[in-house]
Design brief:
Protein name: glutaryl-CoA dehydrogenase (ETF)
CATH architecture of the largest domain: Up-down Bundle
Structural class: alpha+beta
Number of strands: 9
Enzyme class: oxidoreductase
EC number: 1.3.8.6
Domain Acyl-CoA dehydrogenase/oxidase C-terminal: 236-378
Family: Belongs to the acyl-CoA dehydrogenase family.
Largest sheet: 4 strands, antiparallel
Amino acid sequence: MKTPDPHDFLAVDRDLTEEERAIRDTVRAYGAAELLPYVADWFEAGTIPDPRAIAKGLGALGVLGMHLDGYDCAGTNAVSYGLACRELEAIDSGLRSFVSVQGSLAMTAIHRYGSEEQRQEWLPRMAAGDAIGCFGLTEPDSGSDPGSMRTRARRDGSDWVLDGTKMWITNGSVADIAVVWAATEDGIRGFLVPRGAPGYSTNVIHKKLSLRASITSELVLEGVRLPAEAMLPGAEGLKAPLSCLSEARYGIVWGAAGAARACYESALDYARDRVQFGRPIAAFQLTQRKLADMLVDVNHAMLTALQIGRLKDDGLAHHSHISFGKLANVRAAQRVAALARGMHGANGITLEYPVMRHMVNLESVATYEGTEDVHALSLGLALTGTPAFR
């Protein structure tokens, strides 16, 4: 019997279909050739120098809104989308975030809640990477409690007028279209705010210590006047944006597994090559114990992602399943990244190796799309039937 593959110890990928393997391999090869050689420099610079080129490349690859049907979207299953997220986050969380915001947040909101005219106008261009979208829900004083948002939309004749501020918005300063959520007299509604609308401005957030290979912005709306047809007609109440967030969180379940795998593989290679006291550090018991701990976390994360993906494809994934996956896999990835960083010694704090970059990125991944505490409470509600958020 063959010794298990260190890179897929439990043969998780054995359960993938031929099409799923092809998508995995295509995204992995693209990432290795077109993204990985540059991502450390982007991280050090604190930006993506040419986000439109990135969008065009990812659009040509077919991963933008790939899980959506029609409108030039690929229409893949949930597992295939998850595999793409895994391979992209194995390179950098910022790249998976780019795809998540474009496809799981902005495009999903338009696809699910938009009018046919809105879908026809935006989705094909966004799928191709010709237009970039962002998702404006979080505010400076409204993170885990989005229902307390202060952004308001009021009617003025047949128009809507929006005032407010959104914060921590990925792609915000380069987006051609922003899906902005605002409180109205009739509850929370979604609006499409185009780039260049009078009263609409963006500010890039600088001095980040995490998710640096990504553009994060503040959106400012000061009397932004929009026509009636700018509202997403199918989005009523907080349930609409939260359903989009659940789609994005699903990508994080897979993405965190990719970040964990990248850190583990770097540590394994380093331990085999790094010689101390006359032999590779992989020969020492303490190192092997750490590698074994990382191996368990990585494979548990892979199994969790695949199981939730299969549930999602069968229409059986509850939002608490997604909370389980994000809570478990991000926590596992953080453990792996910390062990891997230590195993690299002083080299582990440099951008020559990916571990420190993943380690600090995971601090953002642990925070956005619901903190660990929020997802724990979501699981508590599923278990007890009693909400503990308030």
